[in-house]
Write a sequence for this structure.
């Protein structure tokens, strides 16, 4: 039957493509099976169920041209079989041909509706991808002595946008990094992501202290809540880790954790340290519930080490027995050639752990310190 002319909106997964390649032969099998059934059974048996099924199956799977070919073949087959049984009940034969022809017309109409929906879905996906890139731009591959990689993996295959976020910003005070997870889904979460990422880019550039950056993020979410008061409920609180890697030779790492899964520090010898904060804190956007002094956790960030920041889509991923994924254990004792290799390996490992049944998005940010220090503002590393 050749290529059925599938014109889906986007590339499919290998498993889906294989299933479609198998299904595309089903109309031909039904047409041939209908002829064999009709010729090998008594005249009062009819092949019309096979012929009508072929048209209906082709409608959502094939392009209009190939659906028309299947529909026309089904009608022509019904007519030829009617002539082959000319001595039988003509009224029954006419009824069968009319039934196959009517279903064929319905199949063409269904095909048009399905194709229109696919085009609309493709448009929505393009808009969503553009919005994702605008709200969550990809960080640079390198800044100073840091090599950087980031990934956003949606829980649902067709999803393109969500509430997880990351950002990297050069500043006069070193490289500043952010990873977070906004409560909720959909456009409300995306709006909160835009608020947090936008405020971070400005604050990281201007605030000399890391605590000041966090305070600016808190105030930005408060303003958004005030702006939307009386219009709809704003629940855009965000768990987050805000970090700073200074530009001195020591490469000290400073972190403030606001209720987020702790980052991991992968050392050159294969050991993995979980950077647990000294004191707990509420997420961003919940400052009206309590007041406290943000605590900065400071640690060494040696050359060759990699800082891995992640969201709870990783730490709360479960297998079929309900066992959580443990990145510290799974990554311990392993060495990775690059931040990109680390993230690709981690995503594949989480997918295996959950058998592809993730229930939450994953945002991942990996930063490897490859030199004795970070370049001052305005300096650019290799590959930029």
């Amino acid at each position: 039957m050749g290529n059925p002319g599938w014109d889906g909106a986007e590339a499919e997964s290998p498993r889906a493509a294989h299933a479609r390649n198998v299904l595309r032969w089903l109309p031909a099998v039904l047409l041939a099976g209908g002829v064999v059934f009709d010729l090998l059974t008594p005249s009062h048996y009819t092949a019309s169920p096979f012929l009508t099924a072929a048209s209906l199956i082709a409608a959502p799977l094939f392009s209009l041209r190939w659906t028309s070919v299947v529909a026309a073949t089904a009608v022509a087959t019904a007519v030829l079989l009617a002539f082959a049984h000319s001595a039988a009940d003509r009224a029954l034969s006419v009824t069968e041909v009319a039934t196959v022809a009517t279903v064929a017309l319905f199949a063409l109409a269904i095909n048009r509706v399905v194709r229109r929906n696919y085009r609309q879905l493709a448009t929505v996906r393009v808009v969503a991808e553009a919005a994702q890139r605008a709200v969550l731009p990809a960080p640079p591959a390198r800044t100073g002595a840091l090599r950087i990689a980031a990934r956003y993996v949606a829980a649902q295959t067709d999803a393109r946008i969500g509430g997880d976020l990351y950002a990297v910003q050069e500043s006069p005070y070193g490289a500043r990094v952010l990873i977070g997870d906004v409560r909720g889904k959909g456009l409300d979460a995306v709006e909160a992501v835009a608020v947090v990422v936008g405020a971070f880019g400005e604050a990281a550039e201007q605030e000399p202290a890391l605590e000041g950056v966090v305070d600016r993020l808190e105030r930005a979410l408060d303003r958004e809540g005030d702006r939307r008061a009386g219009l709809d409920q704003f629940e855009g609180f965000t768990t987050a880790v805000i970090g700073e890697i200074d530009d001195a030779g020591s490469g000290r790492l400073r972190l403030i954790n606001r209720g987020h899964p702790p980052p991991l520090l992968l050392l050159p010898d294969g050991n993995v340290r979980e950077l647990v904060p000294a004191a707990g804190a509420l997420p961003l956007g919940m400052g009206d519930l309590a007041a406290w002094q943000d605590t900065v956790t400071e640690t060494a960030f040696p050359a060759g080490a990699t800082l891995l920041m992640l969201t709870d889509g990783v730490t709360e991923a479960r297998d079929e027995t309900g066992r959580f994924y443990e990145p510290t254990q799974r990554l311990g004792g392993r060495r990775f050639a690059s931040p990109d290799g680390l993230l690709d390996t981690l995503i594949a490992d989480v997918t295996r752990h959950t058998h592809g049944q993730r229930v939450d998005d994953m945002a991942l940010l990996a930063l490897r310190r490859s030199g004795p220090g970070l370049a001052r503002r305005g300096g650019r590393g290799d590959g930029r």
